[in-house]
Design brief:
Shape: globular
CATH architecture: 3-Layer(aba) Sandwich
Distance between the termini: 34 Å
Strand order of the largest sheet: 3-4-2-5-1-6-7
Structural class: alpha/beta
CATH class: Alpha Beta
Radius of gyration: 19 Å
Length: about 325
């Protein structure tokens, strides 16, 4: 997967490539775009030296509304123009929270016809030569643009919130196994966790999902994201979605997002900062992590974090 030397050492070597994350789910309602947007913001907060570029591969324009500093003006380009020009350089915009983004087109149907080669997006990103980290918000399908995201990504985050999204995740893993991408790039992220939700036969829904992911030997991140009415209101109460980092302090998700971002950075071989983020007392960082069973497939994660052991004890 490479060492991402351009990011880690600040080298100007043209052969060095920025790491690319893709977030993909074939099922809506699992917090996919919320994860994309807030992961970008936390990455900027934890690594101020790391430019972050977000690219949405759908036409819902949620990311545009969150990051745009103002309304689009005539002549502004978007992903469609960057695709035609074979580089995103002209259409990248600086946005809220210091996150850069590429505006989404009003309709991505034309892009699908230009994405039949699954390596197109990877070539486009290579020519863009972004000197930080790129996050792709894949469309909620498994069609051409999503396949391009898989081939471009170094890590593919797959949100799982319930049994339906777990079965849909199975389709992603099968596609990766059949392609030259390989399942080793994928990482499950458990989202919208509600400990009151019970599984058939007893136990929590999270416990059942975790056991199933382990049995299928899918790699997963140990930090999960809880369901939060506060976070849901950040996405729906106004026309401009708000960040978890700045507007959900004191919630479990506020700390969980930080821990997850640490895991992602370490998984990429990129060290996070060792200090709390500015104006954030460490007491706010509540940690919610899962313990892997011996021999289970998962990436290496940060040491020293408080972990929940109830899942291992109940095996």
């Amino acid at each position: 997967m490479g060492t991402f030397r351009a990011v880690k050492e600040g080298t100007s070597d043209s052969a060095a490539r920025a790491p690319v994350l893709a977030v993909s789910s074939n099922k809506g309602g699992v917090g996919k775009t919320t994860l994309v947007a807030n992961l970008a913001i936390y990455l900027r907060a934890l690594r101020e030296d790391l430019p972050v570029l977000v690219v949405g591969l759908d036409d819902q324009q949620v990311l545009d509304r969150m990051f745009a500093l103002g309304p689009a003006t005539p002549g502004d380009g978007n992903l469609k123009h960057g695709w035609a020009e074979r580089t995103l350089e002209r259409v990248i915009r600086v946005g809220e929270y210091g996150v850069h983004f590429v505006p989404s087109p009003a309709d991505v149907s034309l892009l699908k016809g230009r994405a039949e080669n699954p390596m197109t997006l990877r070539g486009l990103l290579d020519r863009t030569a972004w000197r930080g980290i790129v996050i792709l918000d894949a469309k909620s399908d498994l069609e051409a643009l999503t396949l391009n995201a898989f081939h471009a990504a170094d890590r593919i985050l797959v949100p799982i919130a319930d049994w339906s999204s777990l079965e849909e995740a199975g389709k992603i893993f099968r596609i990766l196994e059949r392609s030259q991408v390989g399942r080793g790039r994928a990482r499950v992220v458990f989202t919208l966790v509600d400990h009151r939700a019970r599984a058939t036969g007893g136990g929590t829904l999270l416990q059942a999902l975790l056991e199933e992911v382990r049995s299928r030997r899918w790699p997963y991140y140990k930090t999960y994201l809880s369901r939060s009415p506060k976070v849901e209101s950040l996405n729906s109460a106004t026309s401009k979605p708000l960040s978890i980092l700045h507007h959900a302090r004191g919630t479990a998700v506020h700390g969980q997002m930080r821990e997850l971002t640490h895991e992602v950075l370490q998984d990429l071989g990129m060290a996070p900062v060792a200090r709390p983020m500015a104006d954030e007392p460490s007491v706010l960082w509540g940690k919610r992590r899962l313990v892997a069973a011996p021999g289970s497939a998962r990436p290496s994660t940060a040491t020293g974090a408080t972990e929940l052991r109830e899942f291992s004890r109940r095996r």
